[in-house]
Specification:
Elements lengths: L6 H13 L3 H14 L4 H8 L3 H18 L14 H13 L5 H12 L5 H10 L16 H17 L5 E8 L31 E6 L4 E6 L5 H14 L5 E5 L8 H9 L3 E5 L9 H14 L7 H13 L5 H7 L4 E4 L4 E4 L1
Helix pairs in contact: 1-2, 2-3, 2-4, 3-4, 6-7, 11-12
Length: about 350
């Protein structure tokens, strides 16, 4: 999206954002600033953990009423049972505590504020407060935010100063099982959709590297992901990229630190391995690609044997360009920093 704010409007939004003590109002201002910085509606929604229709609505409000319009709640329907300060308290509480059902929240509200809600009314209120019923994301408990931020700064510096012919690759292995992955989907009420599963523990061993500059992935299948298969990956990358340095960003798997890998890298001066901080899969771009692959190839899909799953996998990665639009939004070099109590987007 092209810039649409004047410098004065940007300054006003930033000043109001700093003064704002209501999180949802601050998020609305951030949405406008992100759109003005060139992010799409979907990218802005992903960063702020909301849906793109909500982002569009905030832009419409801003265009019609300015920054003050972003700091007004226009609830439709009967008057809310909770006062504004109580709604803020509830919102803050729900950001810290995750309940399994709206009924449990009704019980909390009755105990805390002595106000009774029906489940339907509470569900509607949660939607108005921009909450959605979804799974929490599991993140590493030992993540070090300072080390992650240090890596991001180092990565930005590397990108800014590397030679034009140098290339960066994010690498990791993936071990998809010969079994479908059940995910959310729209299923007719009163019916149960079933997906056949397989017995045994057959799986593929994929070793891959993703280049954010070209948007291409190099994927190899091997008997196991180890030092030897990683060297095969190195060799294939070098055959494809004949000039410039090869920066290979990877996690701290033992085989990356093996003597075999160290000796190989010493003999091949174009190669440089850059380790990620411990417990930081959020910084490895190829993790997003693996997840996208599973979503497209394994979710809700049954393959009778490993060869059929292998064929589907190979077809997917050979035709990665067909998913260019989706991957453009997914594979951005904006990294989420995992902190002990919460996470933020590091741009």
């Amino acid at each position: 999206m092209e810039k649409f704010l004047s410098q004065q409007q940007v300054t006003t939004l930033r000043v109001e954002h700093r003064k704002c003590k209501v999180k949802r109002y601050a998020d609305r201002m951030k949405a406008i600033l992100l759109l003005n910085s060139g992010y799409s509606f979907q990218q802005t929604a992903d960063i702020l953990l909301m849906d793109d229709d909500t982002v569009r609505r905030y832009l419409n409000i801003y265009e019609q009423e300015g920054v003050q319009g972003l700091m007004i709640d226009l609830y439709v329907g009967s008057s809310p049972l909770l006062y504004e300060n109580e709604l803020m308290d509830l919102e803050n509480h729900l950001e810290e505590h995750t309940y399994l059902s709206a009924k449990e929240i009704c019980e909390y509200v009755k105990e805390k504020f002595n106000v009774e809600y029906k489940v339907s009314g509470m569900t509607a209120l949660l939607h108005r407060l921009n909450f959605a019923y979804k799974k929490p994301k599991i993140v590493p408990g030992k993540a070090d935010a300072e080390q992650q931020q240090k890596f991001v700064r180092k990565y930005r510096k590397l990108k800014a100063h590397k030679a034009e012919e140098d290339q960066i690759y994010f690498a990791d292995g993936c071990h998809p099982m010969l079994n479908p992955i059940a995910g959310y989907g729209w299923i007719k009420k009163g019916t149960q959709k079933e997906i056949p599963s397989n017995t045994g523990r057959e799986h593929l061993n994929l070793n891959g590297a993703y280049n954010p500059q070209t948007g291409k992935a190099i994927i190899l299948e091997s008997e196991t992901v180890n030092a030897q298969s990683t060297i095969q990956l190195f060799e294939k990358i070098q055959r494809i990229q004949t000039e410039g340095k090869i920066y290979f960003i990877s996690d701290n798997a033992r085989y990356y630190r093996s003597q075999l890998i160290k000796e190989y890298v010493r003999k091949h001066h174009r190669l440089k391995i850059i380790p990620l901080p411990s417990y930081s899969p959020n910084l490895n771009l190829i993790e997003r690609l693996w997840h996208f692959y599973k979503k497209k190839v394994l979710y809700h899909a049954h393959y009778p044997n490993l060869n059929q799953m292998r064929d589907a996998t190979n077809i997917f990665f050979r035709n990665l360009k067909h998913h260019k639009d989706e991957l453009k939004n997914l594979m951005t070099e904006n990294f989420q920093i995992i902190k002990p109590n919460f996470s933020e987007i590091y741009l």
